[in-house]
Amino acid sequence: MANSCRLAEQLLFTTLAQSPGWLEPLAYILSQQRVLEGHPLPLPTLINRLQAEIVGPSGASTTLALHPEGYIAGCVSLGPLHERPGAGLWLSNLWVAPALRRQGLGRHLCQRQVQAAKRQGAACLQLYTQDQSAFYAALGWQPARQAIIGGRPCTVMSLPLGDQSA
């Protein structure tokens, strides 16, 4: 975790709504990631989804970690899942620049969104992953079920956030 703290101290954390100039670079990164994961989404569709965060109440929020050298170091989204409308809050689009992986940034980004979900009064978060179950399990996420999402088998995981009434 010491590496995480040092790396996080170097980065600027913002939201897409606060920094809309990052929309197209972020859309490109996420588009490429979706291709690698086997469920591509046309770039214009992704841009429209991200644009909805900026101009309207989409219910989504993407946190960006910006490197001082002027690039996106990582990102993660929190909001309704387009593939499963009405299914509550989901963590999605976790991505860390390859050169910065295994330094705790992914963990840090997830923790920021978990805290945001708690502030919104969410009782539970969900996510799906094809091959990162161990990473999320180490953060306290629990496997909920197996599913086919985007035509690919994946594990749906959940994270209980505790009693929000206290």
UniProtKB/TrEMBL annotation:
A GO molecular-function annotation: acyltransferase activity, transferring groups other than amino-acyl groups
Keyword Transferase found: yes
Domain of life: Bacteria
Keyword Acyltransferase in annotation: yes
Keywords: Acyltransferase, Transferase
Pfam families membership: Acetyltransf_1 (PF00583)
Domain called N-acetyltransferase: residue spans: 11-162
Classification via InterPro entries: Acyl_CoA_acyltransferase, Bact_Acetyltransf, GNAT_dom
Record Gene3D superfamilies: 3.40.630.30
Xref: PANTHER family: AMINOALKYLPHOSPHONATE N-ACETYLTRANSFERASE-RELATED-RELATED
Protein name, per record: N-acetyltransferase GCN5
Organism of derivation: Simiduia agarivorans (strain DSM 21679 / JCM 13881 / BCRC 17597 / SA1)
